[in-house]
Amino acid sequence: MVEARPSGSVQGAARMEAAAQAYGRHGWSVIPIQPADKRPLIPWRAYQERRATAAEISAWFRRWPGANLAIVTGALSGLVVLDVDPRHGGEASLQALQASQGPLPTTLSAASGGGGRHLYFAHPGHRIANRAGLRPGVSSHFIPPQFSRAIPQTIPEPFSDC
Q: What is the pTM of this model?
């Protein structure tokens, strides 16, 4: 396991832990990730099957006070996220997908660290694999969340099977 160096303030760590606890109470599976990175600080695959306990979350942020936070998307969390990366043709790919499959519904959109955006949708209830490279610049996978209480729309079936 890779250990992050504490880079955040005590207040920052408390806010991140509070967000993680709130997300957990909302039913989302969360994990700590390296500061300014997407790499998990813990073996995360178990959290596709179960949610972290409040005690685990507290322990993570005591151990890594500078850690960032990710939601493990999928059926357990009830979320699918499309990651659109314009550096790799994501906007053009998303337009092509919508031209062939129909438009996506309006939903929560958050800026990503790489200058792109994340589109949040309710999980459709059947297995959807993490897909890096769904199309050039478009992926579906777990990502660090932006703090929001918006309720996402359900992703349309054609997009969930792409």
A: 0.71
